[in-house]
Amino acid sequence: MHTVVVGTSHVSAEDVLAVAREGARVELSADALAAVAAARGIVDALAAKPEPVYGVSTGFGALASRHIGHELRAQLQRNIVRSHAAGMGPRVEREVVRALMFLRLKTVCSGHTGVRPEVAQTMADVLNARITPVVHEYGSLGCSGDLAPLSHCALTLMGEGEAEGPDGTLAPAGELLAAHGIEPVELREKEGLALLNGTDGMLGMLIMALADLDTLYKSADITAALSLEALLGTDRVLAPELHTIRPHPGQSASAANMLAVLAGSGLTGHHQDDAPRVQDAYSVRCAPQVAGAGRDTLAHARLVAERELAAAVDNPVVLPGGRVESNGNFHGAPVAYVLDFLAIAAADLGSIAERRTDRLLDKNRSHGLPPFLADDAGVDSGLMIAQYTQAALVSEMKRLAVPASADSIPSSAMQEDHVSMGWSAARKLRTAVGNLTRILAIELYAATRAVELREGLTPAPATRAVLAAVRAAGVEGPGPDRFLAPDLAAAEAFVGGGELLAAVEPVTGRLA
């Protein structure tokens, strides 16, 4: 297990994934601790003055007009955490909470939030102890940051509320901290607010979705190529010169991937004498255009994620020269928009994959394959209902593609009168990513069975590698009807775990 060092500059997406998914340890650099201490000195100086400063000596949101005296300021910071830890619904996944905590720590270490160094160190200690606060599905509007989710995390730092230990057992947070020798934090001026004000939850989910979708888009190029091959289609439409004249980089990359998978195939474009085709159907012929547009969407989303990783999101912020200024950088619009955009692209990728699957199962359009790829059609139903499952998933993908960021519900007595709904956009994208994995798994299942039914024809070397790997993974080939759900679950794990990509790349070289 490697260690991620957090300094004053931004961390990388790889760092976030390592901490969130792999449990990497976190260390704070000396320059980060120095920057945190310097910013804290500014906050302490302001706290000693009689003039009110938002977050230091005032209430919050619509209550910011009240000046808070010294004797109540520790209580003020405790209260904001307790009152804002108001989430409801199912627990959020461990990796999401770890990403959220790590990204908040990253901003704390920027030297712009004004917390004490011991608060930052405690955040790192909790991550390293693999203590995970209980965070709930509902509570964030994606403006003023992911307030409720971050509040539940801050509550754990205070030794309050519930958390999950490294063994997965739920326990009072105070007991878990004590078991790992971690002292609860006694919050001081501005610290409660600084722990809550960020886009960390939605950003963490964006970074993880980008990693998952990178694998899935490459996998979609593979499954599209297998479907083209099984349908005895032509690979001439994948020629580089056809994609150069429409210079979208994602389109060219997808076409090149498909061409690499199909290299050496004995099925493509040579067996259409009985039913000549001038052109293949759109779901086959336009696969690079649709997957390519999604790839370009991913590229834009990565740019937004990189910018947000370089940001210090808090309100107010400590600036060089001792200024503490209110701002609106906590608004999640930039992140929310790309989260919604990715859900739209993923829905369309799932939709075109389902159309190819349906074509493989329809004897009137599959160019010689048995109905529903059944062993004895009529006695056997083959993959008929697998396509129903795929269609249900696609239908939900379309519902999930409705933008969350187009909505806004005013809050805090109309002080916070426009919000991003970025957390909601991130949550539905996670569901969409899971659905897309299942949709591609069903296309893979159908396409591999269809290729094997083309007896006497030799598939591409990459296809043969997929067939060997998928069968070794427990996904069975053609034959009489059997309990299908275990096969589909194995195919889902094969795609989602990156095994499909791992089977192909030794043959094709690294896919783009």
UniProtKB/TrEMBL annotation:
Subcellular location, principal: cytoplasm
Localization (cell): Cytoplasm
Molecular functions per Gene Ontology: histidine ammonia-lyase activity
5-imidazolinone (Ala-Gly), cross-linked positions: 143-145
Sequence positions bearing 2,3-didehydroalanine (Ser): 144
Post-translational events: Contains an active site 4-methylidene-imidazol-5-one (MIO), which is formed autocatalytically by cyclization and dehydration of residues Cys-Ser-Gly.
EC number(s) from the headed UniProt entry: 4.3.1.3
Taxonomic superkingdom: Bacteria
Annotated pathway: Amino-acid degradation; L-histidine degradation into L-glutamate; N-formimidoyl-L-glutamate from L-histidine: step 1/3
Reaction(s) this enzyme catalyzes, per UniProt: L-histidine = trans-urocanate + NH4(+)
Keyword terms: Cytoplasm, Histidine metabolism, Lyase
UniProt similarity note: Belongs to the PAL/histidase family.
The name this protein goes by in its record: Histidine ammonia-lyase
Species the sequence originates in: Streptomyces physcomitrii
Organism lineage string: Bacteria, Bacillati, Actinomycetota, Actinomycetes, Kitasatosporales
